[in-house]
Amino acid sequence: MPIEHVGVSERARDQLVKLKRNTGIPHWNELCRWALCLSLAEPSIPAAAKIVTDSSVDMTWRQFGGTFSDVYLALLRERCHRDGLELSDDNLAAQFKLHLHRGIGYLAADRRLTNLPALFRRLELSSEDRLS
Question: For residue 10, what is the domain's CATH number?
Fold first, then answer.
């Protein structure tokens, strides 16, 4: 298993706290799933960065992905393959961390996300952009 532990930086934790408050989504893993998918849908490769996962947000891969943890891993593998990256465990773990943090940043930066319906509209618009 390339990713056994999921953690986020202190900054990302603060962004997730704000998102929890605005959307009413009570669980870190649910917000993190949305964030990951949002970043994976973005065509650009996330910028390389050293991310220190030093916050209190901490979960196992199974907690992160729930019933669909294998699907999230398959999506990540496909994205790495599409980006021309070797599918090593280290690369998958690094790309997961980069995509997760980029997605959290995208969600946190959107001032329109003041409630759960706004989050759904944001994600719907993102998927429509990809389909056109």
Answer: 1.10.1220
